[in-house]
Amino acid sequence: MTTLPPCPKCNCEYTYEDGALLVCPECAHEWSPAGEAAAEDEAKVVKDAVGNLLQDGDTVTVIKDLKVKGSSLVVKVGTKVRNIRLVDGDHDIDCKIDGIGQMGLKSEFVKKA
User: Fold this and answer.
1) Where is the Protein YjdM N-terminal domain (predicted)?
2) Which of the residues 24, 72, 94, 95 could staple to 7 if both were Cys, CB 3.0 to 4.6 A apart?
3) Is there a single domain that holds both residue 34 and residue 66?
4) Which range of residues forms the domain containing residue 64?
5) Does residue 53 belong to any structural domain of this protein?
6) What is the pLDDT of residue 36?
7) What is the dihedral of CA 61, 62, 63, 69, to 10 degrees?
8) Nearest to 80 by CA among 53, 57, 62, 68
9) Is the residue at 73 inside a domain?
């Protein structure tokens, strides 16, 4: 039997595994093991078209005219997008563009402002 770490919140030694999480039966605190959390943080590295590291809350500039799928709208070159949010998937930037609304962008079509 493997020894599981005690609860970081109440120090209870009777923790158990529930899928990918560890659970404390006394205070109901759930957390992921330290090794898995560190691997997830390192895997999420998003860079812009010129190689700058992007983070949540950054401001980026569009470097190419982008057609909006299912619409006749176009995001023009030089459009500034503020307060981006990084997400997993093909379009790794989630943002709100003035005049268009909520949309996903690929990091290869933006540069950090």
Assistant:
1) 3-32
2) 24
3) no
4) 59-112
5) no
6) 47
7) 170
8) 62
9) yes
Coil, strand or helix at 35: helix
How many angstroms separate the CA atoms of 106 and 70, rounded?
A: 17
Q: How many CB atoms lie within 10 A of CB 68?
A: 13
What CATH number corresponds to the domain at position 92?
Answer: 2.30.30.40
Q: What is the DSSP letter of 72?
A: S
pLDDT truncated to tens, each residue of the chain (113 aa)?
568 888 888 888 889 988 888 999 999 888 887 654 454 555 578 999 999 999 999 999 999 999 999 999 999 999 999 999 999 888 999 999 999 999 999 999 999 99
In a domain, 47, yes or no: no
Strand pairing category for 101-105 and 110-112: unpaired
Q: Counting every residue, how long is the chain?
A: 113
